[in-house]
Write a structure and sequence with these properties.
By secondary structure, the protein is of the alpha/beta class. It contains 18 helices and 17 strands. It folds into four domains: 186 residues, Rossmann fold (3-Layer(aba) Sandwich), CATH 3.40.50; 75 residues, Transcription Regulator spoIIAA; 141 residues, Aldolase class I (TIM Barrel), CATH 3.20.20; 41 residues, no CATH class.
């Protein structure tokens, strides 16, 4: 395409070009279809490329015969929005598809649509507007808010929709596209009053092995080929939507994974808990034999083994991450975490024996059953980790956010006053050497509102964002309380 003439747009164009030049193609993706679909990640480039689903969905959509799907990212200084793949401006695309994995992604989508002069609500869009399509993790137990914004929602795993989408995603008018979408199972089309509640879930992840077709030096796992080895979760934690909605857990076939590890020498293994993979010892043998450098997304405390941690540490990693969630057995039982005190102790000792000098621990607070002793015990557990010999202990703390589809869905988030009081107690209990990170309670509360608001409240919240250039948290909170 021709370079932009204005200085501001040229700067934006140059930034996208830099992002594109930081990428390495792992697989050749065909961009030859007639129907242009913009896959827009509602966050920055670095966050987008740290998500396997972004590049994987891009690959799947471009596998459809009539589709030309190109990738876009959302950054505050952008206004024109150029494709990462051909630098084509966004306004040349007929369908804008957003992967929505977290509630706060919606705020970015609202701001993005306003910047592009597209109505946030589907009710106010015209035939000249693009089709706004949502997919992603939030479509498994869909918050009502999404039904007020999207023209189309694809619920569940995209792989299960590919066969039916092949005949729908072809060049045709906006009205015809919506009509054809409405005839498909597992797809909602709110403008035509078709609302689905059941997501389609893939029976396995081997038909379309989830591997990133492009990698970037700017991703969290820099220049690593991301491989999803587990989808869903074998556990049943009361607070977690992943374990509640995506059963049974499905694992990548060992033979497929072995082949991938022989091809790619720098990988990131993605799973709800990498240590739940049933053939982990065989995988470690392949990694060692082929000199594969690997990173992992998440570890389960009571499934850690010394060999695994030793291999991980031998590759230069100094920090490993675990999630006790609570420091007392009583609260872990409330959360249904399934972890015992001695298993946490064992994990900390194993990490030190393997050579790790740093550990990061995740905790949840703001649980109605917890008392002051439960909160102070978090600091005691961090102190124990320091006494075991870790040079650095990072404690990351998040308020409990009751969400749709979980066993805690009927609970309410604790008040901001209570959350702040508990933050103070926890902070005072922490040893001075520890690094403590709290998710801001207001941000947690906003996630809760976006997830749990009924249609009436969601409608009012949406109107706030439509009317106000900079919608304040206090405005949203007042609507929700009312």
């Amino acid at each position: 395409m021709r370079r932009p003439r204005s200085k501001r747009l040229f700067t934006e164009y140059q930034q996208i070009k830099k992002y594109s030049e930081s990428e390495i193609s792992v697989e050749n993706i065909n961009l030859e279809g007639d129907l242009r679909v913009a896959l827009i990640f509602p966050n920055t480039y670095n966050v987008a490329m740290s998500s396997l689903s972004f590049s994987y969905v891009w690959k799947l959509l471009n596998g459809l015969p009539k589709v030309r799907c190109e990738r876009f990212v959302v950054e505050n200084e952008f206004s024109k929005f150029y494709s990462l793949d051909s630098f084509t401006p966004l306004d040349e695309f007929k369908i804008w598809a957003f992967p929505i994995h977290f509630e706060l992604d919606l705020i970015n989508v609202f701001d993005f649509l306003k910047k592009r002069s597209v109505a946030i609500s589907w009710e106010k869009r015209s035939d000249n507007d693009p089709i706004i399509l949502f997919g992603g993790a939030l479509t498994y137990h869909t918050p009502e808010m999404l039904f007020l914004v999207a023209d189309v929602l694809i619920h569940g795993d995209l792989e299960e929709h590919l066969h039916s989408l092949k005949d729908v995603l072809v060049p045709q008018t906006r009205d015809k596209l919506l009509t054809h979408f409405s005839k498909l199972k597992g797809i909602s089309v709110p403008p035509l009053n078709k609302l689905e509640t059941e997501p389609l879930v893939a029976g396995d992840i081997n038909t379309y092995p989830p591997v990133s077709p492009v990698i970037s030096s700017r991703a969290q796992f820099s220049n690593k080929v991301l491989i999803e080895i587990e989808r869903g979760c074998v556990w049943n934690c009361n607070f977690c939507e992943l374990g509640a909605s995506r059963k049974p857990a499905r694992f990548l076939d060992l033979a497929i994974l072995k082949d991938l590890l022989r091809i790619h020498k720098n990988v990131g293994l993605i799973a709800s808990n990498v240590t739940d993979y049933p053939f982990l010892n065989e995988v470690l043998s392949v990694i060692e034999k082929n000199n594969v450098h690997f990173s992992v997304s998440s570890l389960r405390i009571n499934k850690l083994r010394k060999r695994f941690l030793s291999v991980l540490h031998s590759q230069g990693q100094q920090t490993f991450t675990i999630a006790p969630e609570a420091a007392t057995q009583r609260i872990r039982d409330v959360l249904k975490k399934g972890i015992k005190d001695d298993e946490i102790d064992s994990a900390l000792f194993l990490g030190r024996e393997a050579g790790f000098s740093n550990v990061k621990m995740y905790f949840i607070y703001g649980i109605q059953e917890e008392n002051e002793q439960d909160l102070v015990a978090i600091g005691d557990l961090v102190e124990k980790a320091l006494k075991v010999g870790y040079k650095s202990v990072i404690a990351s703390l998040n308020p409990l956010i009751p969400k749709k589809g979980t066993a805690f869905s009927t609970r309410t988030i604790q008040s901001l006053q209570d959350l702040r009081r508990k933050m103070t107690l926890i902070r005072k209990s922490m040893p001075r050497q520890a690094k403590v990170k709290f998710e801001p309670p207001r941000k947690a509360y906003l996630q809760y509102i976006l997830n749990q608001a009924d249609f009436s409240t969601a409608f009012e919240v949406l109107r706030l964002f439509e009317r106000n250039e900079n919608c304040r948290f206090s405005d949203v909170l007042s609507v929700f309380k009312h």
